[in-house]
Write the structure tokens for this entry.
Amino acid sequence: MSLKLYAHPFSSYCQKVLIALYENETPFEWKPLSPEHPGHYQDFVQMWPIKKFPLLTDGERVVTEASIIIEYLQLNYPGPVRLLPADPHAALEVRHLDRFFDNYVATPQQRVVGNALRPEADRDPHTVQEANALLETAYGWLEQHIEGKEWATGSQFSLADCGAAPFLFYADWTHRIDPKYKNVLAYRQRLLARPSVKRAVDEARPYRKLFPLGAPDRD
Ligand SMILES: N[C@@H](CCC(=O)N[C@@H](CS)C(=O)NCC(=O)O)C(=O)O
């Protein structure tokens, strides 16, 4: 098997790639980044000193950044589910939504969690306030955008939904999605019901105690 994925099951960006792999039943070897496998982490840091996971290897080839990994899979290991549409204009819209979920949902969500993981004296309430305000704005934009759509850009499940699923999952745990955002909550539920997403969420269940804000029981 040539594909190896260095990842942790509880990580949202790793789940983004796992969902893409599961959608197309692409075979790969897990290289868990966990304390039980210190060698995997050393290899990972050697390949990518930026230390952001996931990381995919394909023989000698090293691929980093979740969106790029998914594009790489589409180019080199295509399956029945096209996560980037063939039409370049449709693909541009998918990439736009992918940027939206990375920059305006995952990034502020990670900031709040990152702040909670710091020692008390190093925490910054302004960071948390700004991050939560950005999440709120993002929910508001998405509420309008997703109206009448099944998936992020319409009727086809895509790269953008691979990210949306874990990011909205954890965003709701971090800064709860208000019931007034009915379309966003319904979209989150549709994502969670998708078998590839359900599998990634279930595999991460044993690690919920790692969530520093306290994982709620509702999902
Ligand atoms: N831009 C990266 C972000 C990946 C990322 O933030 N990964 C987190 C886990 S969800 C991570 O590596 N955290 C470890 C750290 O920051 O040291 C991507 O798209 O893959």
In short: Helices lie at 12-23, 38-47, 66-76, 88-117, 125-145, 159-174, 182-193, 195-204. The mean pLDDT is 97. The first strand starts at residue 3 and ends at 7. Residues 33 and 41 are 6 Å apart (CA to CA).
